[in-house]
Design goal:
elongated; 19 strands; mainly beta; about 230 residues
Amino acid sequence: DYFGWSVALSADGDTAIIGAHYKTIGSNSNQGAAYMFTASGLPSVDTLALVDITTTTADVSGDIASNGGYSITAAGVCWSSLPYPVISDSCTNDTGNPFVSFMSGLNPGQTYHARAYAINSQGIGYGNDLSVFTLCSSHNVEVVPSSNYSAISITDAISHFSASDTTIKASSYEYVEPSVVFSAYAVTLQGGYDCSLGSVVGFSKINGQMTIQGTATVTISNIIIGP
């Protein structure tokens, strides 16, 4: 039945799917089948969420779904600027389950990858890889097109918005905006850009109350509003 005709391996190397081409299933010939194999004995871990992101820190939660049949000796989160960080990268050692890890010493405006881990006597189990873009160290807001007017705040950008404009772009930054009042022009407020406003990589935060007035259509994306 051509067992092994195709093989797929998970990114962490713990799970393999092996295809059996032309496998007979019951009375049906040439149906094919797939078999899943998981490394035994290793802990099973989930990376749950990245929250409370700042310019230099972030919180990551993890959960040990299974200890693999052996006692857990260490658990936490590892992170790196490259995907699939491992125990030799920056890591925490946390207690409890589920647990929350505090990532620190990060650089502003940079993408990091994080994943939970757990260790038992059989080895290390890793969770899924999550990415985060830390907040920029300074604001960057632009009205498009309006000759790409560079604003000092989102409020300033709105005050320069005209009927010929389409978008306000805001970098991934924590803005202190006591009140934002939109004009009558339809506008898209797009946050979460990298520090040079080249591409959307995360989210922006407005630390205050956003007030939207008028009948214009306002589309807001990648922005968190609140204290």
